[in-house]
Amino acid sequence: MFWFMLIALVAVVAAVALAVLGEGGPLRDAGTDRLDDRLPADRPLIRSDIDAVRLPTAVRGYRMLDVDEVLDRLGAELAERDARIAELESSLAGVHANGSTMSLTKQEEPPGTSFDDPGHGSAGGAGE
User: Fold this and answer.
1) Residue 128: pLDDT band with limits 50, 70, 90
2) How far apart are CA 68 and CA 75, in angstroms?
């Protein structure tokens, strides 16, 4: 039984070695596993661009260079969008501030100068 197990073990090791080595030569060079679907550089990213990204893996996880490249691009675009949003919000706040100032000045008219209701002006108060 011992000899049978030993021969079976040698046969399995030989089969694995032949499968790995292929034609009996040295191991083949590993193919380049690079990010083929680059993010578009000519336009801002959209949701489908991010959904379509498939990062290549390496022996111990994802390839750091490709992941860093994608994250740097996303970070730059998010910072640009955040700056644009802040700019638009500040200009919108300025418009609202000017609009509220105008509405306050309209509400603070002295009594009797309103042309909306002629019966309650200064002339109406003198007749009573």
Assistant:
1) very low
2) 10
